[in-house]
Amino acid sequence: MKVGLISLGCAKNQVDSEMILGVFKRSEITNNIDEADVIIVNTCGFIESAKKESIDTILEMADYNKKLIVTGCLVERYYEDLKKSLPEVDLFIRIKDYPHIKEILSNFLNENVKDFKEKNRLLITPKHLAYLRISDGCNNRCSYCAIPLIRGNYRSRLEDDIYEEAVSLVNKGVKEIVLISQDTTRYGSDLGNTNIVKLLKRLETIPNIEFIRFLYLYPSDVTDELIECVRDSKVITPYFDIPIQHASDKMLKLMNRRDTNEILYSLVNRIRKAIPNAVLRTTVMLGFPYEEEEDFNILKKFISDVRFDKLGGFTYSKEEGTKGYFMPQVNKNTAKRRLNEIMHMQEKISLEKGLERVGEIHKAIVEEFEGYYYICRSFAFAPDDVDGYLFVLSDDKLKKGDVIQVEITDADSYNLFGKKLD
């Protein structure tokens, strides 16, 4: 039996995909859908575009006339509807049923499979890189977001379990561990005996680890203690991924965010004062209900003032089950116009921020070779296909996973360029 899997959506969903693949023997996994006997599509159901991609992928895979299994967020959210509307699918598995996936797949495939556990994960990242999920679910209840409906309340993993998995990953050759969750700064709040700082300080003691990166920070929960922990570490990357969504107090309140414009300005200033070379990445949403031109101008001024190194934006997607679903909607063309204006602003800012790094020395990991350059990543680039890359010239022949020192020589709006130091 050959199994092929397509993973859609975020890195957190990718970890689920790796755990699903881990129930099978390695010899049973194929990257060639044509030769697969069983096709698994792990879906995303976060926003409208992701839902459409999931449905399109399911229908495309159904044309192969293989056993078709569909899992993930879309299934959790629309289980009964999907069963009725997609008879092409042989088996739907909800997220809530993942603890029983061994029994479900064993019965369906008439094959023995392994336990659905982190320790059995089959990594689909490069050998030197792994995501490490530290929690699941979310308690924030932002008025635009369906994640709590899909993933439930926030649940931290035990610190010992995370540490043991991290050690296992490093022993397998992983050099960069990326901590992920729906709200990384909340880690440990439901355990009572740990927090994100304690976890980071424990993980950085693991021998032979080169980078520890953490993503998805809630702005008002980024403490001075956390900033100082990053500042004082040799392996925790000074990379702060802090989705703000907006900077207008009115919009933040409507979005049910705990932040204010003042809190956001203060946060950026605290990080940059403590760690001048820190990379700040954010995400903003345009066109949320009741957004007016005044709110948009406040956001533009904030972005112009604080000058994020990296910024992603998207227009609001109306989602069933959220508070925003019942609010008056902003014209879609207006939202797109505002988004385009923000991204045009940011393109110039990112170029200027990149050029400011010329002359810096970065430790970097080699990802691949293309043309004249080695494609690498330093602390300044997360591996989630949102950031660019560090393109490096080298007289030496390098291989994937090599750790090198690079002098930054140039930049564009998305990437840095450099040369390997001897």
Can you offer a commentary on this structure?
With 422 residues, this protein is of the alpha/beta class. It folds into 3 domains: 3-119, Methylthiotransferase, N-terminal domain (Rossmann fold, 3-Layer(aba) Sandwich); 121-355, pyruvate-formate lyase- activating enzyme, CATH 3.80.30; 361-420, Nucleic acid-binding proteins (OB fold (Dihydrolipoamide Acetyltransferase, E2P), Beta Barrel), CATH 2.40.50.140. The chain is 33% helix and 21% strand. The protein contains 12 helices and 17 strands. The chain has helices at 11-21, 48-62, 73-85, 101-109, 147-151, 159-171, 196-203, 224-231, 249-254, 261-274, 293-306, 332-355, and strands spanning 3-7, 38-43, 67-72, 91-93, 129-133, 135-136, 155-156, 176-180, 211-214, 239-241, 279-286, 310-315, 361-370, 373-378, 390-393, 403-411, 416-420. The strands form 5 sheets. A 5-stranded mixed barrel has the order 13-14-15-17-16. Strands 1-2-3-4 form a 4-stranded parallel beta sheet, with helices on both faces. α2 (48-62) links the parallel β2 and β3. α11 packs parallel to α12. The longest helix has 24 residues, at 332-355. The radius of gyration is 22 Å and the shape is globular. It starts with a strand and ends with a strand.
